[in-house]
Amino acid sequence: MSTLHLIPVPLSELADANPALSLTPELLNLTRELRHFVVENAKSARAFLKTIGMPVPIAELSIHELPGRGKMGKSEAKSSDWDALLAPITDGHAIGLLSEAGCPAVADPGSDLVHRAHQRNIPVMPHIGPSSLLLALMGSGLGGQRFAFHGYLPQDETGRKQALSRLEDESRRQGITQIVIETPYRNRAFFESLINGLKPETQVCVAADLTMPSQLIATKSVQAWKKSGAPNLDKRPAVFLFKY
User: Fold this and answer.
1) pLDDT digit string (tens) for 132-142?
2) CATH architecture of the domain covering 132-243
3) Is 240 left (phi over 0), alpha (psi -120 to 50) or beta?
């Protein structure tokens, strides 16, 4: 039986990215050998595969998107849907799982496909590549011994304020670095929620445009952020971290 390969994709815009800068030569060569892919977004996947110089026309590749996700963010697919995506493996063909950017199945769709592969005893091979969460944690200086990723916090003001208070208290009691994200066009409003909802001494890191020339990684106390003002986060992919 063949393998499900979990293939990271560069974080920066594909038009400006050189995959060789963030992916190993071995991984690039392996990806070029694959002919079957399961992806988050077919358009961005084709763009990525084009940048790495696939030896066959992109149109000849088998590229299938992951099933859609419901209101709670959970996949609406059944076991038979996952089995259909994994079908090439039963015929002896390896499959590459691609995210739009970064590592698949980490703060990203695809984990259900990986889980189904394990249920069917299909070998799974994760590969080294950029992860926005780990890069942000590394660069924050907030400590990586204990950390937790929470994805998106509630959008309503009351729910978000309650979530921040709970996570800050958890950080204080257990020494945990809390990691959250937001949709780029809501970054500014989310940053203001952090600064207005956390205690003055809590440390907040903003990590935006990771691996890009415009990269920003800055860690300050809430009090210091209030003095310096908010960074420009408009439409920039960002990760937010805080620790009491």
Assistant:
1) 999 999 999 99
2) 2-Layer Sandwich (3.30)
3) beta
